[in-house]
Amino acid sequence: MLKSLTLTTITSLILLAGPAHANDTARDPQVALMAAACANCHGTDGKLAGSIPAIAGRPAVALESQLLAFKQGEIPNTTVMDRIARGYTDDELKALAHYFANIPRN
Amino acid sequence: MSSRDSKFPRIATSRRDLLKVFGAGTALAATAGCAGTPFISRGSAGRVVVVGGGFGGATAAKYLKRGNPALEVTLVEPNATFYTCPFSNLHLAGERAMSGIAHNYEELKQVYGVRVIHTRAEDVDPVAKTVKLGNGNTLSYDKLVLSPGIDIRWDALEGYDQAAAEHAPHAWQAGDQTRLLRRQLEAMEDGGTFILSAPANPFRCPPGPYERASLIAHYLGKHKPRSKVLILDAKDNFSKQGLFMQGWRENHGDRIEWVGLSGDGKVVRVDAAKREVVTEFGTVHKASVLNVVPPQKAGLIAHRAGVTDASGWVPVNPQTFESQRVKDIYVVGDATVAAPMPKSGFAANAQGKVAAAAIVAELDGRSLPKPYWANTCYSLITPDYGISVAAVYKLNEEGQIYAVPGSDGVSALDAPLVTRRLEAEYAVGWYNAISQDTWGTVL
Amino acid sequence: MGTLFSSRFRVWLSVLLFSLLLTPASQAEQAWQRIPALEALLAETTPLRDGLTLDLPFVVDDGSAVAVGLNFSGQLQQGEYINTLHLLAPGNPRSEVMSLRLQSPQASPAQINTRMRLSQSQTVYLVAKSNQGRSWLASREVRVTVSGCAVADPDARNLVAMETPRIALPNRLRQGQPASIRIMINHPMETGLDETGERVAEANLVQSLTIQLAGEPLLQADFATGTAANPFVQFQLTPKESGELTFTWRDSQGNEVNETRELRL
Ligand SMILES: Cc1cc2nc3c(=O)[nH]c(=O)nc-3n(C[C@H](O)[C@H](O)[C@H](O)COP(=O)(O)OP(=O)(O)OC[C@H]3O[C@@H](n4cnc5c(N)ncnc54)[C@H](O)[C@@H]3O)c2cc1C
Questions:
Q1: Does A9 map to a domain?
Q2: DSSP code of B393?
Q3: Last residue of a domain, which of B240, B273, B295?
Q4: Which of B229, B233, B276, C210 could make a disulfide contact with B256, Cβ separation 3.0–4.6 Å?
Q5: C137: distance to nearest CA of chain B, Å?
Q6: Tens of pLDDT along B118-146?
Q7: pTM value?
Q8: Cβ under 8 Å to C: B residues 317-356
Q9: How far C155 CA sits from the closest chain B CA (Å)?
Q10: What pLDDT, on a 0 to 100 scale, did the predictor assign at position C160?
Q11: CB under 8 Å to A3, separation ≥6 — which residues?
Q12: CB within 6 Å of ligand 1 — which residues?
C-alpha cells in the first residue's frame, strides 16, 4: 500500500514538474483560511518538520493522493489524519494540496 | 502615536449628551453621511486592538498582519512571558521544566510588526470604540479582538476563594499556580492522596482534569508508590472517558479512583486550609494535596465590554466570531460559546484565524470568507501513552457550527500500544507546532 | 469623528433595543399553544408569567444529565399555594420529564433542583398550578450540542434496579427556617426507546419518590423518560416540628426502596 503510494507520488512528480496554477490558490484568502487550521500541527504555512512532517513544498499530487488515502482509511496505523481528512470534501482536499505545494519550503 | 494613546475621552452616555458634545447639526449630518461605511483612520488600513496574548489573541494578531501587513495591530497583554496550560500537566509530573512551556512576543513584534503593550485592558467603550489601559492610556480601534480566556467564578463553590487557592491551587491558568501545585506534590508524603475536584461543563479543556490525574499518577508511581489519586467529579461522563479508563488500568493499575456525579462525586464545599472537601451527600474527603478545578466564566474584560450573556460566556456570530451583542468586537477562545468546539488552545488558535480573516476582509470591503475550524486535543496518560479527540468544524445552513460527520471522534479503543506511543510523540509535535504558529517559539 | 460617534451609537442602541424586544418569553407565548401536552395541562386557563422561573444552561454539552432549577416566587392570594409543578421537554422523544406534587405548606415551590435529559436543542417548559386553579408558565430555550443519547454512562449499563439511596439533610435545622434537602437514588432510567421515540425494549424507570413527614404527605415526585438516570431531587423544607422523614421510591418492576431520617429541630 505505502509502496504503491510512493510510486504514484514519484510518477506524478515527474509528470507535474513545477507549480502550475500555483499562485491563484496561494493568494486566495478562502483557501488560506481553510489551510490555516493545518498549521496547528504542521507549523505556520506547513513548514515545521518534526515528529509531524512538514507539508509545504511537497508535490500537490502526492499531497492530494495521501489526503484521499487518509480519508478512505487506506493508510494503516493512522492516528488523527483519517479523522481530519474526512472533514473535507475531495475538492477541498485538492485545494489544500495545491495550496501547500505552492509554498516554498525554505 | 499620541492620537492612539490619548487620555481616555469623556464618554457621552445618552443621545442628549452626544448632541451636547458634538452639536446637533454635526451629529445629524453624520448619521446620513457615514451610515454603513466602516470608519478607518487616515493613513492606515485600519486599527485593530487585540486583548490577550494567549492562544486566541496572539494567533489573531499574527494572522491579521499576515492577512494585511498595512493594518495597525496592537496587542495588549500584561505578561511578557506566557505559560501555556497545555503541557503544564507534564510540569506537574516533573517531566518538563517551566521554560518548556514559556513563550514570548518577540516574533509578533519583530517579524510581524505588531505593537505589544504589556498592561491590562481595564475597560472598553463600545460607543467611542476605545480601550482603556491599566497604564492610564487609551487606544482607539476600528475593530477589537478579545481573547481573555477564563476567569474563575470565585463565588460558585462554597469555601473556594482567592485565598483558598493559595492552599488548594486550581492551576487552571498556568504560571505561579502551576509552580505551587508542583511544590505541593514534591512535598507530599508517600502514601498520601492527591484529590482533584472536576467541575460540570462547560469549562476550559474538557479532558484536562483527567490528563492531569493521569500524569500525576505517573509521577506518584515513580516517586511515591504508595500514594493514590482520587478524582471527584460533578459529571457522570467526561471527555474520552473509555480511553482514559482503559489507559488508567493499563498504566496505573488501581492508583486512580474516579467518582462521578451519581456516585456522590460532586464537591459542594471546600475547606482549603484543612485540605478537605465535602460532597453533595455529605461525604468528607481529606487530601494530602488538593487541586480544585473550579467553575469558570469568560475573562473579566468581556463582561466590561458588555459582550457576555447570562451564562457568563460570550455568544458570537459563528461566521466571524464577532460578538452577537456589540458590533466591531470579536471574541475568540475559551471566553466564547462556540460549542460543539471545545474550549481548547487548538480551537482558540483556529478561531483567532477565522476572526482575523473576517476583519481583514471587512476592512478591505471584501466579502467574508467561509470559515473552517479544526481541533485535535491530545491527552497523555503517561509521557509515552497518548490518546486524542479530533474534529473538523464548518458552518451549517442555519449558520451554526457543526462537526463534520466522520471527522469527529476519539482514538480507537482497541488500538495497539505502538499507536498510543505514536500519539504521545504527535502530542509533542503538536505542541511544538502550535507554539511556533502562535508565538513563533522554536522548541 | 463626532459624526461617526452618533451613528455608531444609534446602531448600538437599536441592536440593544431589538434584542430586548425579542425576549424568549414573547416568542414562547405563542409557541406553547401548539404543544398538545402543554395545552392539556393548561386547558382553559391563561397562564401567568411573573414569578415562575426555569433555570437551565443556555448551551448544553451533554444532554444526558442537565441540571435544572425550578423556582416559584410569585404573588399568591389568601389561602393559595402552589400544589403541582410539571416539567416538559417537547423536543424529546417523549415530552414528560417530571411532575412534583407539593402536599404540605412545609414543602416550598422555591429553589427546587433536578436533572433532566435533553435529546436535542429545544424549548423546555415548566407549568405551576395553585390550589385555586391559577397556573403559571415558564420556558427556556436550550441548545444541545451532543445528544443525550450519544453519551452513555458506562456504569449505568450494569445497573438494572434501584441502588444506593442517598439523602442529605443540613446539619442544623431550625423551626420555620427553610432548609435544603437533596435526594438521589442510583438507577439507569431505561426508557426502552430509540432516538426516534420508537419502543425497542421494555422501559425500566423509577416511577415515583414519595416523602412523608411525621406520617403526613410532604412531596411526591413522578419521574418519566425525561428524568436523568439516577433521579435527583433537591427541595426546601420549612419544618414546623421534629418528626420522622420517610422516603419511598417505586419502580416500574414493582420494587420499592424505603429510607427514614430523624428530623430534629
Ligand atoms: C491543564 C490544562 C491542559 C490543557 N491542555 C490542552 C491541550 O493539550 N490542548 C489544547 O488545545 N488546549 C489545552 N488546554 C486549554 C487551553 O489552555 C485553553 O483553551 C487556551 O489557553 C484558550 O486560549 P485563550 O486565548 O482563550 O485564553 P489564554 O490562552 O488563557 O489567553 C488569555 C490571555 O489573555 C490575557 N488577559 C486576560 N485578561 C486580560 C486583560 N483584561 N487585558 C489584557 N490581557 C488579558 C491573559 O493574561 C492571557 O495571557 C489546557 C488547559 C488546561 C488548564
A1: no
A2: E
A3: B295
A4: B229
A5: 20
A6: 999 999 999 999 999 999 999 999 999 99
A7: 0.87
A8: 325-327, 337, 339-340
A9: 9
A10: 83
A11: none
A12: B 51-57, 76-79, 82, 85-86, 88-89, 120-121, 147-149, 172, 204-205, 208, 212, 299, 301, 333-335, 343-346, 348, 377-378
What are the pLDDT digits (tens) for B232-242?
999 998 989 99
B286 and B371 in a single domain? The answer is no
- Give the residue-averaged pLDDT of C229-241: 96
Q: Are residues B359 and B309 in the same domain?
A: yes
The rounded percent of chain C whose pLDDT value lies above 90 is 67
Q: Domain of residue A70: give its range.
A: 28-101
Rg of the Cα trace of chain B? 23
In a domain, B9, yes or no: no
pLDDT at A96: 98
Residues B323, B350, single domain; the answer is yes
Rounded to a whole number of angstroms, the distance from the CA of A82 to the nearest CA of chain B is 8
Q: How many structural domains is chain A composed of?
A: 1
User: In this complex, which chains have at least 3 CB pairs below 8 Å with chain C?
Assistant: B
Residue B137 and residue B222 in one domain: no
**Chain A contact for B369 (CB, 8 A cutoff):** yes
Residue B268 lies in a domain: yes
372-391 in chain B: CB under 8 A from chain A: 372-374, 376, 388, 390-391
* Residue A67 in domain: yes
Q: Is B63 exposed, middle or buried (0-12, 13-18, 19+ CB in 10 A)?
A: buried
| Sheet order of strands, B256-259 included | B256-259, B228-233, B193-198, B289-292
Q: Identify which of A33, A39, A85 has the shortest CB distance to residue B357.
A: A33
What is the average pLDDT value for chain C, to the nearest integer?
A: 86
Could you list the residue range(s) of the whole structural domain that residue B163 is in?
A: 153-295
At residue A25 the predicted structure's pLDDT band, cuts being 50, 70 and 90, is low
CATH number at residue C113: 2.60.40.10
Last residue of a domain, one of B241, B267, B295: B295
What pLDDT sits at residue A15?
Answer: 39
Task: Output B83 or C149, whichever has higher pLDDT.
Answer: B83
Instruction: Write out the DSSP string of B303-362.
Output: HHTT---TTSSEEEETTTTEESSSTTEEE-GGGEE-TTS-S-HHHHHHHHHHHHHHHHHH
Q: What is the mean pLDDT of residues A79-106?
A: 96
Any domain includes A49: yes
CATH number at residue B35: 3.50.50.60
With a CB cutoff of 8 Å and minimum separation 6, the contacts of B248 are B214, B217, B255, B256, B381
- Cα–Cα distances (Å) from B73 to B7, B46, B146, B221, C215, in that order, read 19, 8, 13, 48, 72
Of chain B residues 2-31, which have a CB less than 8 A from chain C?
A: 12, 15, 18-19, 21-23, 26-31
Give the pLDDT confidence of B256-295 residue by residue, as tens digits.
999 999 999 999 999 999 999 999 999 999 999 999 999 9
Tens-place pLDDT, residues C152-202: 444 445 678 999 999 999 988 999 999 999 999 999 999 988 877 888 888
Provide the H-helix boundaries in B88-173.
Answer: 88-92, 106-110
ipTM: 0.86
Q: Whose CA is nearest to atom 25 of ligand 1?
A: B56
Q: Tell me: do B203 and B250 sit in the same domain.
A: yes
Strands B143-146 and B47-51: parallel
Check pLDDT > 50 for residue B40.
no
Q: What is the dihedral of CA B164, B169, B175, B179, to 10 degrees?
A: 120
**Closest B-chain CA to C228:** B262
